[in-house]
Write a structure and sequence with these properties.
The chain is built from four helices and three strands. Helix 1 links the parallel strand 1 and strand 2. It is an alpha/beta fold. It starts with 5 loop residues before the first strand and ends in a 24-residue tail after the last helix. It has a three-stranded parallel beta sheet, sandwiched between helices. The radius of gyration is 13 Å and the shape is globular.
Length: 111
């Protein structure tokens, strides 16, 4: 996870995913969807982006925005650490439990 800058979880159905809380505790900016409790911790335009489920173009655009704006990425990462402390203060980072996705031209979000 240390080499990952963004954590994407484009879910269709969730409660409040532990994976998002773990990524946030590692200071990762999150891109996800508006399902379940995700919008409680990922606040669109504050510490990441949330989109409607299945909106691949918007998710791709969010990734591109963060790649093109490293200062925005850093700002969101700082905010995510503040927000996650309220929801999961006892979380200890364990790199073996964290996952990130690397996008390539083969990824359906790429086009």
């Amino acid at each position: 996870i240390s080499s990952c800058n963004v954590f994407a979880l484009p879910s269709y159905n969730e409660g409040l995913p532990i994976a998002i809380l773990e990524a946030m505790s590692a200071g990762k900016t999150v891109i996800s969807t508006t399902v379940g409790g995700i919008p409680e911790v990922v606040i669109n335009g504050v510490n990441g982006f949330v989109h409607e489920p299945g909106d691949r173009k918007s998710i791709y655009q969010a990734i591109k925005t963060l790649v093109d704006n490293p200062n925005l990425l850093q700002s969101y990462a700082q905010e995510t650490l503040k927000i996650v402390k309220e929801y999961y203060p006892e979380l200890e980072l364990d790199d073996n439990k964290l996952y990130c996705v690397t996008y390539s031209e083969d990824c359906p979000f790429y086009n």
